[in-house]
Amino acid sequence: MTDQPHQPKGFWQTAPGILTGIAGVLTAIGAVLAILLQLGVIGGSGTATAPPSVPSRTTAAATPGPATPTGTTRPAAGGWENATAVMTANDGTTYQSRASTFRYCFAGGGGVNVNKAQDIAFESMTLLEVLRSDIALSPGGRADVRITLTNGTVLTGTIDAGCDFIMQAEAGRVSLYPDKVRKIEFQRPT
Question: Number of helices and strands (H, E) in the chain?
């Protein structure tokens, strides 16, 4: 018998080590793809098919008063692909980008979820105003908003204050949470 000490296996020689390494690589690739997609570097705004947007329904309007039409809102004439998003911060600073690349929440999409019940696409809006907001990332934080749709309907409700509005302005990426935003206008060519 020989008394050789047991040599421990290296991290990459164990099944848990290999699985952890693979998971890390896949996570990194996913994060890079998400960033590139969000910035419009990949996925583009091809003319063949438009990327799916957040469904826009107006069945749960929070504004008391006249009934809101049920169903999907129709985008305004003038073309979303040529529309511009103009975000005005509380301090009056304005930022501008192509509206089709404007996002809410990093992994989110082209719209907001109002009252934790209704998805409204930016494409169906002309204006989103932040009336009041809890501090960004506060637990359970909400922001009160007023949304004007392309058909003239005005909705009010709340959105998550823990998500940010993201755009790729000419000078670089802009990210503002609702507590720093006054309004967002979606301007279409006439």
Answer: 1, 11
